[in-house]
Amino acid sequence: MKTTKTLLLACTTFLTTVAFAQTPARNASGSAVPMKSYGEKIVPDGAVSVVQFTKMMDGRDSLRTKLACEVITSCTKKGCWMDVQLPEGKVMKVRFKDYGFFVPTHGLEGKTAVLEGTAYRETIDVATLQHYAHDAGKSEVEIAQITEPQQSITFTADGVLIGD
C-alpha cells in the first residue's frame, strides 16, 4: 500500500512539473527568445503555426486557439491593434480583449508573437479600414483609395507574448 502511494505521489509530481513547465519560444536557429507579456499571462507552449491555424479555420466562423506568428506592424497611435502575417501574403488584424491592454507602437515589425484568444471571420467596413490605415501612418492618398469593405479573419487576443 505504501509503495502504491509513493508511486502515485511521484507520478503526480512529475506530471504537475511537466504540465506547468514553461518552455521558452525558440527562433529559427533553435535559440531561446525572451518574450514580453501583455494582457493575460500566457505561455508559448501549445501554440500552432500560421499554416496549421489557416487549416484549422477552414470551414469555421470562429476558433479559440494559441497562435505563433510574425508581427508586421502595430497601431502607431496607442498600440491598440497589430497586424500579423498569414500564409500566401494574407494579413490578420489582432485586437486586444476589451481594449484592456496595448502593445508597443513601434519596433514590433518582424518580431515573433504568441497570441491566445479567439479568431473569427468578419466583414470590416470602409470607415474602420480607413481608421486602421490612418493609425498605421498611411498617407491621405492611400486612405482615400480604400473604398470597399474587406472580408477577413480577425483575432481578439486575451494575452500576447512578443519576442525581444
Account of the 3D structure:
The strands form two sheets. This protein has a five-stranded mixed β-barrel with strand order 4-5-6-8-7. The chain has 164 residues and is α+β, with helices and mostly antiparallel strands. 26% of the residues lie in helices and 37% in strands. The protein has helices at 2-20, 50-57, 126-135, 140-144, and strands spanning 25-26, 32-33, 35-39, 62-74, 81-85, 91-96, 112-124, 150-163. Mean pLDDT is 85; it is low at 4-24.
Sheet with the most strands?
5 strands, mixed, barrel
Average predicted local confidence, pLDDT: 85
**How many distinct domains?**
1
Give the C-alpha Rg: 19 Å
**CATH class category label:** Mainly Beta
- CATH topology type: OB fold (Dihydrolipoamide Acetyltransferase, E2P)
Summing up helix and strand content along with how strands pair, one would put the structural category as alpha+beta
How much helix, percentage-wise, in residues? 25-40%
Shape: globular
So, CATH architecture? Beta Barrel
Low-confidence stretches: 4-24
What is the N-to-C succession of helices and strands? HEEEHEEEEHHE
Task: List the total number of helices.
Answer: 4
- The side-by-side strand order for the widest beta sheet comes to 4-5-6-8-7
Our measurement of the CA-to-CA distance between the termini, rounded to an integer number of angstroms, reads: 51 Å
Number of strands: 8
- Fraction in beta strands: 35-45%
